[in-house]
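Input record (one chain):
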Amino acid sequence: MFQGSIVALVTPMAEDGRVDYAALEELVQWHVAEGTDGIVAVGTTGESATLESHEHMRVLDSCLRASAGRIPVIAGSGSNSTSHAIALTRLAQSRGAAAALVVTPYYNKPTQEGLYQHFRAIAEAVSLPLILYNVPSRCAVDMLPGTIARLAEIKNIIGIKEATGKLDRVKEIRDDCGGNFLLLSGDDATAKEFMLAGGQGVISVTANVAPKLMHAMSVAACAGNRSQADILNQRLAELHKNLFLESNPIPVKWALTEMGRIPPGIRLPLTRLAPSHHDLLRNTLRSMAIL
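The corresponding structure, as predicted from the sequence alone:
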């Protein structure tokens, strides 16, 4: 159910920061038409850190309504507060999300035992399938394979979004957790190799602007077709790099605005892409015939 190119969807906003729900639903419709295999709503790329709880749920509701069951919608529901993460995950379950993506607690810097207890508490509070999310570059904590293996024994913890970029972890986690444990890349630059090594998909920033191509590359990589995956990923390589010229989702929201798909809003403390980067990213989009 959760495989291939899953977009880490942006949250469109007006210039004053209000969520543009109409633009959001249009984005979802476009992704369905372009072949995107799934949607993560209110994740990091969706600016979950600055959305209020009621906005989390309304964004999720909009994605579910627009997708109409055609592709799965996964709700970001993580927090550095265990009780808040439980509350968000319960709400996601009540709204009908297919699963929840739950990030490691940021800022607190818990121990490996603290990570285990945090995720176990969330899993025990819901019946919803949970996908762990390990992103040390943002959270200042790395959930190690041994901890992942312990968590994989919990029935409704079904997989992980692994965003370290460390490809040796694919085999290590697979060996520790078994063939049924879902492995999703969280790093566009290494996603092709991650899938060729046995991962089932990617939760992708790049898919926001090149959904059809990311879907095709993921199909090839997941099938073990290295030659085709290499060809397709080469076309995506500059986009993988230049969508991270500044902190995500600053560049990807600017790109989507250039494409005419969303208004230019973004919430502080994030700011709009610096003008010095505009030509480089614009030229990348033009070289791919996206503009």
